[in-house]
Write a structure and sequence with these properties.
The protein has 1 helix and 5 strands, in the order E-E-E-H-E-E. With 70 residues, it is mainly beta.
Length: 70
Amino acid sequence: MQATAYTYDPETRSGQVLLDDGTPVPFDAPAFDAGGLRLLRPGQRVRIETEPTAGTGPGLRITLVTLQTL
């Protein structure tokens, strides 16, 4: 799934992404670390993976955040 980086705190390595419908969804340090990133800037397109049973919208639990590549 794709999203846009919205917020990121380098000290906690957590933040939020915006889904394409504008819904903000938080991610935690383990999801950020799983993607191997060192920094994330607001506005960057990212690829996210979620738990299969996590629902939709704000109920999603993000398990991986990485940069969107073509």
